[in-house]
Amino acid sequence: MPWRVLPLLLALLLPSLVAAQMLPGQGTQVEREGLEIGTSTSEIAITSDFRGADLTIFGAVTNTDDLLLAIGQYDVVVVLEGPREDATVRRKERVFGIWINASSMTFADVPHSYSMSSSRSIDDITTPLDLTGEGIGIDHIPLRPIDFAGNFNSLNEFRTAFRRLQQVGGLYERDPSGVRFVSSNLFKASLRLPANIPNGVHTVRAYLFKSGKFVTQKSQPLRVIKTGIEQTITDAAHEQPIFYGCFAVLLAVLTGWGASLIFRKD
C-alpha cells in the first residue's frame, strides 16, 4: 500500500534534507563582518586661537575573509557629521542695478559640517545608487526641501549651490585617501576639522564595504565646545539675552566715548 511506504521514504530523505541545510565544514553559520572604531579624543575644545585640528580614528574589521582581505576587497569610509539643522539657500538677482534676494529654498535637517575620508575614491567603492541609499558622500547627502512647489531644475540648482557654498566655506571636505590599513584588519583614518567648525555634538560614522556591497556601520559622538571667554559670551547671549544686549550697548558707548577722548583735537 502506498501509505505504508511513505514513512520509509521520509526516514530515508530526512538525513539528506538536514545535511543540505548545513554549511560545509562544521555545520556552523559564518558570522558577518563587524566593525569597531575609536577616536583619539572625545572632545574638541575651541579657544580664541583655534585654527582647525586633525582628528584620528582607529578601527578594526572583524570576521573577515582572508582571501578577500588579501586582494583588497574591503573598503572603509569614515565621516564626521556636524549637528543637523535646517539650512536656507538664497538666490540673488539684479533688479534696477541692485542685487537682491529674489528666491530661496530651505533644506531640512542637514549636517552643518561634513568631513569624509575613505580608503579610495567612493565612486570606485560602490555604485552611486548605494551611496545615495546610505547617504554617504557630499554629493549624496539627502537635501530635502521644505514646502517645495517648484520644478526639479530649480531644486537641483539650489542643491548644487548649497554644496558649493559649504565646500567653499571649508565646512564640507573629503579626502579619498584618508583611510589607511595599518595591518590586515586594522585601519587608521584622519579627518580635518575646519577652523569654523560648529559648536555642539558631532557624530563619527564608519562604513564597511565588501566587494562593493555595504556591510555595516558604526558610530560614536564627538563633542565640540567653546572654552574660556568665548564660551562665557555665548552662554550670556543665550541664557541672559537682555543683560547681554544692555552690556553690549554700554560697552559700545564707553568704547566710542573713550576713543573720542583719545583722538580729539583741542
What is the topology?
Blueprint (H helix, E strand, L loop, with lengths): L1 H19 L13 E6 L3 E4 L6 E10 L3 H5 L3 E8 L2 E12 L2 E14 L2 E5 L3 H4 L2 H7 L9 E2 L6 H17 L3 E4 L3 E3 L4 E8 L6 E11 L2 E14 L2 H11 L1 H23 L3
Parallel strand pairs: 2-13, 7-9
Antiparallel strand pairs: 1-3, 3-11, 4-7, 4-12, 5-6, 6-8, 10-11, 12-13
Helix pairs in contact: 6-7
SSE series: HEEEHEEEEHHEHEEEEEHH
Number of beta-strand segments: 13
Distance between the termini: 129 Å
Structural class: alpha+beta
Spatial order of strands in the largest sheet: 2-13-12-4-7-9
Write structural notes for this entry.
- The structure is a single chain.
- By secondary structure, the chain is α+β, with helices and mostly antiparallel strands.
- Helices cover about 30% and strands about 40% of the residues.
- The strands form 3 sheets. A 6-stranded mixed β-sheet has the order 2-13-12-4-7-9. The chain has a 4-stranded antiparallel β-sheet with strand order 1-3-11-10, with no helix packed on it. It has a 3-stranded antiparallel β-sheet with strand order 5-6-8, covered by helices on one side.
- Strand 5 (about 85-95) and strand 6 form a beta hairpin.
- Helix 6 crosses helix 7 (about 240-265).
- The model is unreliable at about 1-30 (pLDDT under 50).
